[in-house]
Amino acid sequence: xxxxxxxxxxxxxxxxxxxxxxxxxxxxxxxxxxxxxxxxxxxxxxxxxxxxxxxxxxxxxxxxxxxxxxxxxxxxxxxxxxxxxxxxxxxxxxxxxxxxxxxxxxxxxxxxxxxxxxxxxxxxxxxxxxxxxxxxxxxxxxxxxx
Length: 146
Ligand SMILES: [Zn+2]
Ligand SMILES: [Zn+2]
Fold this sequence. Notes:
By secondary structure, this protein is mainly alpha-helical. About 35% of the residues lie in helices and about 10% in strands. A hairpin with an 8-residue loop joins β1 (about 35) and β2.
């Protein structure tokens, strides 16, 4: 008489994959309802506000908008005049330039934020940036707790 204890009580059964029960899944796992991404014309569904693709860019955009609209100085004629002058003087993104890239600047930003006492209308405290570098700089400024 053989007394082997290693017999599988449930022999592997490889033929149990049926995709017939759509919408009738196990109710054990709560599934968040997905909504369409808030970005216009984006077909992706998400359980957040934006899909994975747009979440990052929207966050950066919102932050950038926030920091710039939070200071009324950025909408003054004096700043805009200075910004135009500086951009003519420095038409390329200075951050990209420092790593050897030639990218057209999209905007002028302060090196030291004016909230931190940086000079408002001085070319010493101004920097031409492309959108990417500006978004990165703004995110860094926020990360460092300003
Ligand atoms: Zn999207
Ligand atoms: Zn750049």
